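Lay summary. Proteins are chains of building blocks that fold into shapes, and those shapes determine what they do. In this project we predict the shape from the chain. Here is one chain we studied, written as its sequence of building blocks.
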Amino acid sequence: MSRIPKQLTFGVIIGNRGFFPSYLVAQAHEQAEALFGKLGIKTVMLKDGQTHLGGVETRQDAKVCAELFRQHRDDIHGVVVLLPNFGDEKAVAEAIRLSGLKVPVLIQAEEDNLDKMGLATRRDSFCGKISLCNNLRQYNIPFTLTTQHVCALSGEVFEQDLQRFAQICRVVKSMQGVRIGAIGARPASFNTVRYSEKLLEKMGVAVETLDLSEIFTRIKHISDDDLRVHEKRGILIENADASGIPADKLTQMAKLFVVISEWVVANDIDTTAIQCWTSLQENLGINVCSIMSVMSGQLMPSACEVDVMGALSMYALASASLNPASIADWNNNFGDDRNKCVLFHCGNFASSSLESPSMGTADIIGTTVGKENTCGAVHGRLKSGPLTYFRLSSDDFTGEVKAYVGEGQSVDDALETVGCRAVIEVPHLENLLAWICNNGFEHHVAMNHSATGVVLQEAFSKYLGVNCYLHR
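And here is the predicted shape, written in a compact code that computers can read:
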């Protein structure tokens, strides 16, 4: 089961300053409960009685708020600060610092009305937000801003900001303590998918390895009529039309699926990178693509060719949007259109992202290992729609993990070819490809149907310490 959180909980701080109208705090409390409830987000928030109107204004208020957050620290994915009036910037900043939470922070400031600028109704949140941001920066607490400097708590702009912030929080939480399963050795000629386990460990990401020989041994001890095999065969058939695949090949795939799945569960694996050629074809007579497609569809993505950084990229993409991610090659130009290109892989895409997915053979690799030994590849055209592409890479020369991200469109221009394929359109694609080449990135890229480029860039650059280039 995927560890990506679907239910989120936010700690909510409502700032106050005594010589501004305090009734605005109670009003903000009501509006916040309604909004978070509407979006299905749980909250941890002070109530009237714990502090004055449930706001945070003094150091004592900050201590009470921090203690409340500490009691729920394992549940809180992010902190949302609401400024219905100027607020006390120091008290709010201290509440976050004293809580010990290392989560994303969103700052909202309510807008003033021109007909309510008297002493009894004015807010001055416009100014208070600047003061709070200054204090948070002094305290080295990273934060996220709303689209507009001030916006109505009950308005559509802030609701969209809150949904975007939820995606950031989901990415940050998902990336903490990720466990990647590296199954088999990378293809000998693929220096491009080399990576640094030590740089990943520095990020808090662990890599567990499994040799293919262990998988082959375990498969030998599973009978064809094992109930686990029957279950996995059914999942594979449901994933993509398998009517053209021989029964013995489906059984062999199901056995491989059983072994991989049980190892994943036993080792708390979140995402996998698998040696997909040529050992599996030569020893088992099948491709692993359909198994990878199923796992990616379950938000436990699986990358080809032991591309560990690619698997991590897929996991991040899936966590941002809760949509399955796939991995592909930046593979072909699309005629003379320099803003379009073809993304391609033998057949591993999540089936829900494809038009009429079917299971077949991997014809390209079949030219060397025999087409009959490549059953299991998924064929299908990526559905049209918004697309986000993303790539993490470990750079031993600079001692850092780096990334790039951007958005485009999957388009339905005619393309006659096999495997999993897509025609995509990316603004200023030539500039992006030059940037990828000049900065030593791999030929693989993770992508899915979403519009989460800004979310991923902010999550990684601001909260996860990864320098992430956003292509526009």
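What the prediction tells us: The chain has a mean pLDDT of 97.
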